[in-house]
Amino acid sequence: MNATPESFDPLKQLLQTLDLSDAGGAQTDEDIFVGPGEPHAVRPRLFGGQVLAQSLMAASKTVDPDRLVHSMHGYFLRPGDVTLPITFGVQRLRDGRSFSARRTHAYQGGVPILSLIASFQTPNTGLEHQAPMPEGIPAPETLPTTAQLIGSIDHPVAKAWAYERPFDIRHCGPNLYFDVKGEHVAHQAVWMKSLGDMPDDQNLHRAALAYASDYTLLEPVLRRHGISWATPGMSVASLDHAMWWHRPLRVDDWLLYVSESPSASGARGLSNGRFYTRDGVLVASVAQEGMLRLPSE
Fold first, then answer.
1. Which residues pair with 187 in a beta bridge?
2. Acyl-CoA thioesterase-like N-terminal HotDog domain: from which residue to which, for each copy (predicted)?
């Protein structure tokens, strides 16, 4: 891949990626939208979080503006190509008094690479409770950035992780980029925040959170077995992704992402995660199963 230009702005690129076109008003039995691949990616395969976020934005364009996405269930069907645009077909499954349901397929080369169903709700009130935020978490300002940790490593993937992500990601303990230090436990905590201010569009913030949620969700599986992202010959791919948004949020404020893995078997690993604001408000929950294949002994 070509080197990323010095003027590359990861957050600007994210906003452009999520600003889908309406394909000139094209429509079949679906609403049609088009979005870009990842022109600056150093890997050949599309980042799953991007396709999730774009699919949610496509669906949100077909519902009333006051209805916010509250849940999403998606399956990754095929690897996407970073060099190709993506076509999104949205089927309007139902519009009720308070809820709207949409099915989005993301296509490349005429075949679906992602299938997703999302539900949107008009804001309402009702019962309230939440799981508490973990205690003893260090403040994000006290933790090193990814650029500080690995930005000096002369490797294209290290440079991409350090400088080309639209989010500032700070591990609350040892990271897993190139080695694994500390205990081999099946849980971790990470602070995340976009690199700059985002527009005041709650569905955009929720889609951006779906994007970011895919970065580290499988890390508890790897951490439990002492495996880093740089393990030679390892193959990792997201299989499915479910997410629930509980309360309003902003991805341009720090969010604590706590995650754990209850199980790994059959070359698959399952992880669950929760997002908290700095003052302890639970804003979203997420679950994902991924394929993890290691080189033969």
1. 260
2. 41-121
Instruction: Output the six-digit token pair for 141.
Output: 């300002």
- Identify the three-state secondary structure at position 17: helix
What CATH number has the domain spanning 10-123+140-293? 2.40.160.210
Residue 189's CB is within 10 A of a number of other CB atoms, namely: 22
Q: What is the rounded CA–CA span in Å between residue 127 and residue 148?
A: 43
DSSP for 224-261 reads: HTT--TT-TT-EEEEEEEEEEE-S---TTS-EEEEEEE
φ and ψ at residue 152, rounded to 5 degrees: -90, -5
CA distance 286 to 69: 14
Residue 287 is predicted with a pLDDT of 98
* Rg for the chain, CA atoms, rounded: 19
3-state secondary structure of 102: strand
Cβ burial 158-177 (10 Å sphere, 16+ → b, else e): bbbbbebbbbbbbbbbebbb
Please name which of 261, 258, 262 lies closest in space to residue 284, comparing C-alpha atoms: 258
CA atoms within 13 A on the CB side of 61: 23
Query: Where are the chain's structural domains?
Result: 10-123+140-293
Q: Give the catalytic positions in this structure.
A: 214, 238, 288
pLDDT digits (tens, 9 = 90+) for 54-79: 999 999 999 999 999 999 999 999 99
- Residue 6: pLDDT band (50, 70, 90) is low
> Any residues with CB less than 8 A from the CB of 219 and at least 6 apart, and which?
176, 188, 259, 271
* Predicted confidence band of residue 295 (pLDDT cuts 50, 70, 90): confident
d(CA 143, CA 121): 37
Relative to beta strand 255-265, strand 167-171 is unpaired
- Which pTM was predicted? 0.94
